[in-house]
Amino acid sequence: MVEESLTLANTPTHGKLKKKKKGKRTFSDETVPGCPAEETADKVKKDLLIEVYIRNLLALVNSKTNIKLSDLYDKLGSYLRALETLGVTTSNYAAMLYPVVESCLPVEILKAWDRHRLNREVKEDSILTTEKVLENLMSFLRHEVEGEEHRVLAETAFGNGIKRKDTHKPVHKDEPTAATLIANSSAGENNCVFCDRSHPSQECRKISNMNYDDRKKQVMLKRCCLVCLKPGHMAKKCHSNVRCLICERRHYALLCPDLKKVIVLLPKRKVADEEAKSTEILLTNHSSEYEIYLKTIIVRLRHKGKEVCVRALMDDGSHRSYIEKSLVAELHLSPSGTQVLSQGLFGGGISPAAEHGRFSVTVESLDRKYSTSVALLGQPKICSSFTKNT
Predict the structure, then answer these.
(1) 116-152 burial string, b = 16+ CB within 10 Å, else e?
(2) Is the pTM of this model over 0.85?
(3) Where would I find the beta strands (DSSP E) of 78-212?
(4) DSSP label of 172
(5) pLDDT in tens, 269-328
């Protein structure tokens, strides 16, 4: 008993009790272990930690695209283990934890997990299904991380730590847009070699005042190809299928060396042709094996109460529809705009550019059963006069 009293007297608690016996009754601020107040504080800290880890899981949902798969797996595993030590076990809270963990996965991993789950689906007790699915999901992520590490190891060169270059890179194609179309069309235009305007060099009218030597000198001065008249390459490396109409060699007719001979012989042929020339008018009643007959049709033109019956000439080779200016004045047509055209002729010739007015008029059949509105270009004269062929 004496030894026990001495031992008790030396303890700190015994000394405090002795002090409290003297004087008035006091209350200590220190909590005694095992009291209800300390249990309440521990519970509050525990709930706070659970809330912190749950928020960390939710934060992974927003940052799943900016984190590596291995780091994501490590964080998910650490958060789930921490929650399990706090009492939030997968057996009791799997129904809540599984959707959160699944939402943290990237789209590619989520698709792979769906295929994996459907291929290995086994009928189990409904109470344990969610818990097993969460365990299978974490096991699947572990295998994916290990597979990714093996893939990186296989792609790394042996011994030097330099990754091999991917020779099969996917080709990225931009979506076509209107801005891209305009930029490409403007970039692809080549100005004329002879006058620097935006038209093909072989169609330039300025070359009529230049001889063969001046044309060739101008092309070489602009460092253009003598075959296709485009810059960027020489004639030896040109792949254009250009053929001369005079000598059938690889160049345009304007750069043909035989063009001088043709020009010298042209006046002699012209005199011979004029001597043997006879006056021929198209669509006349004079039959000839060299005449070409075009179809005609009588229609009614109508505009703001004015009507006139005319004969329309049907030319299948024409790309535009025209109206004589005398009919424009008779119907009092007002131009809706103008258009500058240079017409291509047979044999490669090009007529001088001329301005044509654009008019809108209603064309009707004679029985008024059909009518349509057409856009016509003004022309001083369409053809010579002709008689009706019966």
Answers:
(1) eeeeeeeeeeeeeebbebbebbeebbeebbeeeeeee
(2) no
(3) none
(4) P
(5) 555 555 555 444 444 444 445 566 778 888 999 888 889 898 888 887 777 888 888 888
